[in-house]
Please model this.
Amino acid sequence: MNLGRNTLYNLAGGIIPLVGALITVPIYVKLIGPARYGVLAIAWLLLGYFGLFDLGLGRATSFRIASLKTASPAERADTFWAAVVINLLMGLVGAAVLWAAAGYFFSYVFKVQAALRPEMIAAVPLLAATVPVATLSGVLTGALQGREKFLGINIVSVVWTLLFQILPLGVAWWLGPNIVQILCAALAARLLALAVLAELCRREFTRGHPIRWVSREAPQLLKYGGWVTVASLMGPLLVIVDRFAIGAMLGAEAVAVYTIPYQPAKQIQILPAALTGALFPRISAASPAARQRYAKEATLTIASLVSLPVVGALFLADPALKLWIGDNLGGKAAPVAKLLLVGFWLNALAMIPYTNLQASGRPDLVTKVQLFEIPIYFLVLYLGLTQFGVAGAAGAWLFRCAIDYLLLSWMCNRGFPGLGVLAVNLSLITVAAIVSARWSHASLAWWIWGAALASMMLLTAWRTLPDNAKNAIGSIFGRLRQAQL
Model:
């Protein structure tokens, strides 16, 4: 199966929803207001975090099925059914836990206008109902990834994400900005996606293989999934705690100031996620030497292709955010966006050793790194919020991403592949961040510096891009030219 083609499928599956988000976010803010948008942002975070109740079975199922590449269809079906049964039970447990946790947080901790609190509390049962749907979707997706069915996965992902963005917005416009009604529409979108994934899995795994519980499959899944579960607990905690802390310490509107630039900055991960997603089943079945080769080429590819967009985004953050969401909110969000962009660049690089460790059967090392990071990050986040407000939270995120990359890369490689290339890229990105903060886009210096840094970054990227990636890019442009003829 073609690694480049699978990466392109994953890439398209990430870019198309981004376009939808760029269109819908300002409409959401205008239609329901910054405070309600901040509440919804916390609701989405809760749903993402409580997906950890899949016990790591999404990734474990992908790993197990990829390793059963030459096994019989019946063996793969046994693995699939074991994962589904365990996952469904744990999804129900997760729903109960979320109900209790979200009820307490929204009732007593989250700072919000008094008029919004009853809506938030009434929406908690809907959030809980979404948990088993989300966890089951993760296992179905993991099973299809193990068979490298990336085209089908990404078609479902794109359609579901667009529905997830559009249906709640339509309900808000039609029935009014009520959080309960908006979440009902979001749950409907998730159920539709789950139904399609279930049909794809039926065709791939269960057709002709009825439900059968094979006890030997559960320990194999849970042994791998146990460490992934702890990582799934720690990882999202490290990712989402910033917005919960902002909501508790600064209020709902501050969450919007942080979340609005966070979402587009996060899209730096689209290419790394596409590449590592395609690599995971390939690495799972590869030899140690091949794994190291894949990892080094992937690191250089990501550094070469992601650094230039980051430089461009640093320069465009201020004018783009003001144009997108208005001068007031955009002006507050721009400094936050720049810190987040550098953090996500580092996070993109960390995705390579993260994937390599899990695909090599060592998810325990990923978990140990995250456990080490938690107290350090929490302390830095608290100090950042108390001293610098929302920008301090973004600075803490950047710090955490740097520590994450350094530790994961050392655990995986006992070194830092492509360190010289990464140092050059980081230097250019740092200069871009300083220059874009010093001058506005109305200044001639802004344009000169921007052009010079973009040129240097482009030259560096082309010189360091692996030959395989150059050939794949050349093939894509060749096909595009042929399509135009």
